[in-house]
Amino acid sequence: MKRRKRLAQAGMLLMLGLGAVIMLIPFVWMVSTAFKTPPELNAWPPTFIPETFHWQNFVTLFDTAPFHLYFLNSLRMAVTAALAIVLTSVVCGYIFAKFRYLGLAFLFSLFLATAIIPFEIYMIPLYLQVQELGQLNRFGGLVLPYLVMSFGIFFMRQNVIQQIPDELIEAARIDGASEWRIFGQIVVPLLTAPMSALGIFAFIEAWNAFVWPLLVVGDKRLFTMELGLAMFQSSFSVDATVMSAGSVISVLPILVVFLLLRRYIIQSVAMTGMK
């Protein structure tokens, strides 16, 4: 029995390790390409380690366009979206989980139903709405669709239901605590892990946004990293080495956020499965 268990664990570890290697290959290739020259990139057989590290790709990247500005625009958009989504999701999730009002369940169903609607279906009405608000070519119009996330509301509602017992909230109400005090001193501290996990997800989604910024932004001073990288791709050619250099810079904030908050993701997944 123990031998079978060990063999099963070894097989699982082998499969997970193989999967990790397969997923890392594109990332390693991107980093390698960022330091190659175009002739070396097109050479056969391909090499993962460049013969000489060509730093000129990064110089060309910033000489061609103000990528420091694009980086700051993406960072501002992603941080704003992450904070807004965490705030709106935890407030709405708490209300939907612990309050009982007529029509509240139906309202939650509407929120949840929007999660299955592709963005391409409502992006034109959303564009017209942003146009009516006078937010085209402005940061407000850029970040507007990323302030609320239906999945985030559902995710926080489930965590509130599973991690915060009704008895705890009722005890606080009996002691005379206001609803905002209960929310700030009881609910929020107990939801640190899922809030962090949701923040990472929201940050990555906003950071990788391309279609919406392409629609509402025409001023290059408001370009994000994704729009800036598209400048190196035309109908007939792609400057793969410089684009890879920009992609490396674009990936760094996501890696930093994940490394800083990865333990909260593990805690959130573990606690979500608890009864």
Please characterize this protein's 3D structure:
With 275 residues, the chain is an all-alpha fold. The protein folds into two domains: 2-54, no CATH class; 57-274, MetI-like (MetI-like fold). 74% of the residues lie in helices and 0% in strands. The protein is built from 14 helices and no strands. Helix 1 (2-34) packs antiparallel against helix 14, helix 3 (56-64) packs across helix 14 (240-272) and helix 5 (104-113) crosses helix 8. 25% of the residues are buried. The mean pLDDT is 82.
Concise synopsis of the structure shown:
The chain is mostly helical. The protein contains 14 helices and no strands.
Helix content: over 70%
Terminal CA distance reads 29 Å
Instruction: Give the count of structural domains.
Output: 2
In the CATH classification, which architecture of the largest domain applies? Answer: Orthogonal Bundle
DSSP helical segment count = 14
Summarize the topology.
Blueprint: H1 2-34, H2 38-41, H3 56-64, H4 67-98, H5 104-113, H6 119-132, H7 139-143, H8 150-163, H9 166-174, H10 179-190, H11 192-207, H12 211-216, H13 225-230, H14 240-272
Features:
globular; MetI-like fold; mainly alpha; 14 helices; 0% strand
